[in-house]
Amino acid sequence: MIFNSLEFFIFLSLVFLFYRFVCKRTVKKQNVFILFSSYLFYGWWDWRFLSLIILSTIIDFIVGIKIDSNNKKNTRKIWLWVSVIFNVSLLGFFKYYNFFVDSWVDMLSVLGYTIKSSWTLKVILPVGISFYTFQTMSYSFDIYYKKLKPTKDFLSFAAFVSFFPQLVAGPIERASNLLSQINSKRKFKYKQSVEGLKLIFWGLFKKVVIADALAPIVDDVFTNYSTYPASTLILGVTLFSFQVYGDFSGYSDIAIGTAKLFGIELMSNFRFPNFSRNVAEYWQRWHVSLSTWFRHYLYIPLGGSRVSKIKSVRNIIIIFLVSGFWHGANWTFIFWGAFHALVFIPVFLMGRNTIYKNSVVGQDSYFPSFIEIVQVLLTFSIITFSRIFFRSESITDAFGFINRIITNFSYASYKHPMGYRMVDYYILVILFVLYEYRIRKDERNPFKFKSKLVRFLMYTIVMFLMLLFYDSHIDRSFIYFQF
Amino acid sequence: MKKLFFKSIIYLVGIFVVIELLIHILHLTKDYPVRIIDEYGVEKWKPNQTGYSVTGNRRQNFSKFRINNSGYNSYREFLPTKTKFEIALVGDSFIEGFHQDFDNSIGKKIEKKLENVSVYEYGYAGYDLADQLHLIHKYKEEFDLIDYVFIDLKFETDLVRKKYEVVKSRMKLESPLYKNIRKIKLLVFMQNIGVIDIGKKFVSNLMSFKINKSIKREEKPTKAKVNKSRINNFDQLISTYSFNKKRFIFILEKDKTPQVFINHLDKNNYRYLDLSKGFDKSDLPKTLIYDKHWNNHGRDLVSNQISFMIKLLNKNNRGQ
Questions:
Q1: Is the pLDDT of residue B257 over 90?
Q2: Each residue of A261-270: pLDDT tens digit?
Q3: CB A451 within 8 A of CB A442
Q4: pLDDT digits (tens, 9 = 90+) for A87-123
């Protein structure tokens, strides 16, 4: 049941009405129903996956209580390791086992030992496993660092782990934010629900119009890269930047909007990363819930930037490599992480990694300055280049793609694989960028216009564009579901 | 809650009204010509109507159609005579050609290639061999004046039945309910781009879930059995209607036709024109982006082959 399916909207409508009319009296009823709905939502993919999420919930619930009830640092640490080892093992088995086996076999073959591997397993990656394992681990970490008191209410905790709007692809919530809301009764608030509906609508637009419309072009370019000139490859990877942004931020907007309907505020996950002025700012704006997770639970415990420069650089390399590996069991993601570390370190060494933390491009003016435009274009180009690794099927393909850009630097007009007019897509992307620039100061309010008429016109245009670019023939699943 | 519900409804209705207007103004959906069953029981378009055929969400294919006095899409009227050299193309939507401008049809292309020939295109979406032979039979007087009749034949779809009957499901589209629904252009647009299908698919999934439990699946007939049944249908239709082997020529694609049927045609001395020969010679796309119908290049190839065959037939006739 994906967010852009009819099944989901029927499910959402029914759950919303039941939640608001039948379960409105007590927080317990609300949480029981949230839990039931979330398990139903998750079990829709494959009911067998439910056992994993239930197991992870039980382990971290117990670990949380155990950590809190012990004063001895070592015992607390042992319990924390129980959570980390269990969750990482779960991830390791389902996501990375085959990768390690294959890599080991490849390495041996390079050394001259050819073995026929029969150790790889045919396991399906459970949807959202990377997200909910990180979320439950954050709970144990927060209790360990005494930032949070554990909950004694298993139902609330289970609802926190499995809350369906953010279960399969984030935002990866912290218990300090989500659990506290789940523990208190949620009342219907008109304004919050309207904001939720607007975000769902905007998220759908980004998914249907931007991501799905560009997908066939990107797929064609990356599949047949060896036959295209550099101009087409650059076009393909640039459009992939917009596709992956539209896909993932669209999903996050729908998740945040859906949570609002249930009276819950999730953290922002995307804050217009395409307008970042350097790579560090990009990481403060792209997949915020994951980058802050790594900062809080990996970078800072390693010493963060409070240690020597060399150690800080080491810490940066570690978090980017782990972040790359988190995305998938493929060398392409590790190279992608390594590349980001490589471009982040100079910014860090120059002390420019936090200078744009509290501002946006064109902060005090309507238009960006010339320097800002150059900065944004440069950052976007660097990020887009890194996506060659992110999108390619293998590391050989990624380097083949880059090699072709360099060695076959020529231009040829590109024809859409299904024969559609390409100009439609160019106009679409330009208008999207301009609109996002217009709303860049508030990612939670994509239709922030004083005039009701203008707002209405914007809704109409967005709906109209969804119809104009809807394509029934393409795969409509979300890219980040594979992680 | 009430406020949220009612305001959402008001906004939705407002948005749909504006989009309905936009679809009208930008002409994003096709016009539906009216169907009739004439006095001979032949299903065709109501004579003398015009409109536009549109395909793709963003009007990627936009063409004008003109239904002539005989009820078929053509730039010309069908007035066969004894003196002129005339040919008829009888077929389904491929011959009907709503996806092309009526002034750029296969018939017109043939007329440009061959001098002093009039081409009458009896094309109607959904026509199978039963429809085609019934039409020829009922308008025998006209067809007897035409020198050659090319009949478009697709083995997989055109030989499913062995006798002619009015297709009720098609005529149902002329009911007041459907006519009124078609007035809402937004619905037509959503239907054309596949949005309505999401709902249909959802309902059918629900239904099939229910039905699958109670009904045993029937065994699928073998390919050979299906082919045999279609060949029987073919023979039955041919025997029902008088078929002039000298003047009637089938148009088919050998690539998409089972060899057993080709052998049957050869054995019984039916004439046919194999389009796949011409299609294979060209690497360019022959069909439209949005559907399987021939694009302009495809129509060029078809008209080339028909023209070539006519030249050949005329040459042979003169030789005799």
A1: yes
A2: 999 999 999 9
A3: no
A4: 999 888 887 777 777 777 777 777 777 766 666 666 6
Residues in chain A: 483
Using beta carbons and an 8 Å cutoff, which residues of B are at the interface with A?
1, 3-4, 7-8, 11, 14-15, 18-19, 22, 56-58, 60, 189-190, 193-195, 197-199, 202, 285, 289
Domains of chain B: 35-167+246-319 (3.40.50.1110), 169-209 (no CATH)
| Bond before A171 cis per omega within 30 degrees | yes
Identity of the amino acid at A204: L
Residue A459 near chain B (CB below 8 Å): yes
What does pTM read for this prediction?
0.85
Angle at A293 between CA A292 and CA A296, to 5 degrees: 80
A419 contacts in chain B (CB < 8 Å): 285, 289
Of B122-126, B204-208, B303-307, the range with the lowest mean pLDDT is: B204-208
Instruction: Give the span between the Cα atoms of B256 and B276, in whole angstroms.
Output: 9
Identify the weakest region by mean pLDDT among A36-50, A430-444, B296-310.
Answer: A36-50
Shortest Cα distance from B96 to chain A (angstroms)?
A: 23
| B107/A446 Cα distance (integer angstroms) | 54
Strand partners, B148: B87
* ipTM (interface pTM): 0.82
Q: Which residues pair with B91 in a beta bridge?
A: B123
All residues of chain B having their beta carbon less than 8 Å from the beta carbon of residue A188 are 1
Separation CA A477–CA A219 (nearest Å)? 14
- Whether residue A324 contacts residue A99, with contact meaning beta carbons closer than 8 Å, is answered with no
Biggest alpha carbon–alpha carbon distance for chain A: 71
